[in-house]
Structure prediction request, 100 residues.
Amino acid sequence: MVDDFTAYIRSRGWSTEASCGTVRTLRVITAHLGATAPVHEADVRARASLHRHRLLQYLRDRDPLVPLPRTTSTLVARARRTAPITSRRRPGTITTRERT
Prediction:
């Protein structure tokens, strides 16, 4: 799996030197769990370095990743992103138009 991930990095044009911490993380995780075991996203996030998003994407593409459960905070964040901007104003605040 580590060799496949290294090939994945090269195929995307990313530097293998810059991703050595991520390769090390995958090596540790697969040594601990085994190459065929599902990997929990929380474990990768807790252990991975700067480029953990690359490792997460790689694992998502190959399907051994167990995603984080949706929590209230992620649902609230999604609702805030999709809510109309006018509804984001806190009650009791004065807009620029109301001041003049």
